[in-house]
Amino acid sequence: MDVHSPILRKLFNESHGIFVGLQRLEEELSGRPRKAQLVRVSKNYRSVIRACMEEMHQAATAAKDPASSSQLSSQVSILSAVELIWNLCEILFIEVAPAGPLLLHLLDWVQLHMCEVDNLSADVLGNENPSKHDKFWNLVTVLVLQGRLDEARQMLSKEADANPGSAAMCRVLGDLMKTMPILSPGNTQTLTELELKWQHWHEECERYLQDGTFAPSPHLSLLCQILLGNEAVILEQKELLGTWYHLMVTQLLYSHPTVKPTELHIYAQSSLDLFLGGESSPEPLDNILMAAFEFDIHQVIKECSIALSNWWFVAHLTDLLDHCQLLQSHSLYFGSNMREFILLEYASGLFAHHSLWQLGVDYFDHCPESGRVSLELHIERVPLNTEQKALKVLRVCEQRGMTEQVRSICKILAMNAVRNNRLGSALSWSIRAKDAAFATLVSDRFLRDYCERGCFSDLDLIDNLGPAMMLSDRLTFLGKYREFHRLYGEKRFVAGASLLLSLMTSQIAPRSFWMTLLTDALPLLEQKQVIFSAEQTYELMRCLEDLTEGRPTCSEPDGLGPQADDVETTKVEMLRLALARNLARAIIKEGSLEGS
Amino acid sequence: MKEIYAKFVSQKISKTRWRPVPSGSLQTAETFTTGSWDNEKNYVSLWSIGDFGHVDSDGGMDGDHQLLCESKHHGDVMDLQFLDQERIVAASSTGSVTVFLHHQNNQTLSVSHQWTTAHYHTGPGSPSYSSAPCTGVVCNNPEIVTVGEDGRINLFSADHKESVRTIDNADSSTLHAVTFLRTPEILTVNSIGQLKIWDFRQPGNEPSQILSLTGDRVPLHCVDRHPNQQHIVATGGQDGMLSIWDVRLGTMPVSLLKAHEAEMWEVHFHPSNPDHLFTCSEDGSLWHWDSSTDVPEKSSLFHQGGRNSPLLAHSISNQAAAHPSLLTSWLSADPAKDRMEITSLLPTKTLSVNSLDVLGSCLVCGTDAEAIYVTRQLFS
Predict the structure, then answer these.
(1) How far is CA B206 from CA A296, A567, B197, in A?
(2) How many angstroms away from the CA of A479 is the closest CA of chain B?
(3) What are the alphabetically sorted keywords of the record (chain B) (predicted)?
(4) Which of A385, A387, A466 is opposite residue B216, by nearest beta carbon?
(5) Is the pLDDT of residue A503 over 80?
(6) Which CATH number characterizes residue B20's domain?
(7) Tell me, what's the ipTM?
(8) Residue ranges making up the domain that contains B156
(9) Residue B380 belongs to some domain of the structure
(10) Average model confidence (pLDDT) across chain A
(11) At residue B175, does pLDDT exceed 90?
């Protein structure tokens, strides 16, 4: 089953919805309500499969070139087989029909899957004289084989109308069909009662046949033999039956209507052998159905896994059966149970698809042992080409507390943003990941830009950092530094001055930046009024000494040559001079008395 | 009981938009467009919902929407808008903006115009050209404004090859959505939680106003303007918070309502019934916010038929409501007083609902579960 077919995608999506709904089913429900719910879920899955089949069938007939038409047709037949198996599993394992209703379910099952009957019926009935149609008796026979006795009787009445000679025989046969005892759904009779009645009816049919009532008409006599469950006669209708399981069900209907589930496999095996007649060997589908009749669930799943290329069917069926508590923890050698193993395989397959990975997330969620680990591995590898997709992936990770993955994805996105010069985006990604290290990197970038250009880029971002400033020291420094510039611009020099000083003394300014800060202090020192107090000036001087005493020993080649050194020394000298002068003024100002 | 029809369409839907009906006509919405994303081949498609003539007494028998036509689209469809009755503008993750033309006579879509390098990180001239996704588009025939992950704002005119105006580096982060305020002004929202108002009459590249929330800089993903009162704007954020802003009243939002549990992707005021607001989110739900006050008794938040979620809608009212006569119910929204009804419209929680649109009594939305939901009885 091709994951990339658009029609199948609907199957994957719809069944994903059913799967998630199933996992959320109430756990407290047990007994009949729960069983009813599980049957409902199973029917939902099947209706999704049928809808998909319908659409594919229409596409196959409408397809223009034979290649795609044949491919679609083969897909339809695969889906049909899948639904056949699922339906049987539903009857045997989920519905767990007891003897009596079991046969009715099996009849429905067969009727549902032999749609040629409807075509044939339409064909014959469309004719003006149905009873003269050459397929007429085929139709009647098939109807009887399928247990659709009411419809068969209608056909017989048409024959009686057209051919008065056989009217009496048709009426007798029709009456026999009408009186056949079957267990109808609302009926409260017990199995023993049914068996008794059925025995009587059987004897009555036998009598009519022995009396030669149907001797004149070979067709009617054949029908009566079928009603009597004559094995040889039924087997002769191989062509009309089409499959061995049809043979089995018909045989059961007319010889053992009260068959018990545990007896099914005996009849199944014999029907299979009879049908194949030693000429051909069983196909995979036959093996799967056989395993189902033997109630060997594990074998069914194993055979299906081998036969089908996609894990879809096996994953959903196994999960449903697991919810029915039918699977013993069939441990595989690496420890996880079968359901989980299959679900993991299926979900990994989904992740390989460019679009269906979102479905895979939910499947991993419901694998208790290895689901989380697998999800962590897969989610990091989803390609992220837009921010919106990245946001969705991040949301998946955050909802499951996968902080490592969040961090790594945000880091990738932030690096991309920095490379594209989107510093605001980079910052917002590092805030989301609470990645202090990256926030520091972004701030360094801002500061470097400032040093190179003399002004800040992206003021809208820095001015409005808000509480995100606390994420990293460097970021806080950036925010506060910008605030200093703002204060300076507003001429609030005293506030600006103390802010500047605190930036240096509180150690949040990087060493490399101290020179710039001190240089920024210069104009403040040169103002007419004294801005820095004596205390503050001492602090500044200490900072300057801290800065310069490291200089002679650090022998890294600057690459700038002796000129840079000159600039540096000039700056330092100017600073020293300004600081000294300010100190002098400050001491005087603080020493003199206030007031006139 | 609202009837909502779902259809699985084999592609994840990123945007859905109703075709506008001619003003003054009594037509109801009939056609909508969708864009897909995350596919190897993405499509812009046009769909039609059934005739109203076939609705029987139960209301809406054949509610299934049918595909009219589709056209391949290069890259994810990031945003979609109808320019007029026949033309659709699509914003792509490859940074291009395409105008599709719908030919009614033979039901096809064709590309009428395309600006391929509308958004980029490094320009087409340089050797390391890298494109940037275009994230939002808004139209006011013939003007088209686009914004993208590159922080750029473009103003195009439908028939001109070059852009009329481009504001480079309008924002240092990603611009997520854009809407018109008064005609020469637009409002953008970005991923550091700021709303910026731009006036195209002014030269220069600075916004004329910046509004933001103090506190955590939560990215804003969607914005919509009140249809009648052009100063009221609703935004949705990454934490699922719905905010209502009055752009005249300073920089704070008027109300903040805690809504979804994950990113809110779209917010829409109902165009003819602006007391109703619709939001959809990554958490898979679509909510209908009803703040109309003309119903006399609304003693509880539960009304029959709707699926209500017990939510904590916490609101902060800005007391600077200086113009009481112009006060709409949104500005004084206080859901604790039981005046606001909030209904969840989707029957089951699905994967993310990426987009929604409302017109008249019809609503359409698209999800990541590859399904489109349509209802024609919003207000029943």
Answers:
(1) 74, 37, 9
(2) 15
(3) Nucleus, Repeat, WD repeat
(4) A466
(5) yes
(6) 2.130.10.10
(7) 0.86
(8) 5-375
(9) no
(10) 84
(11) yes
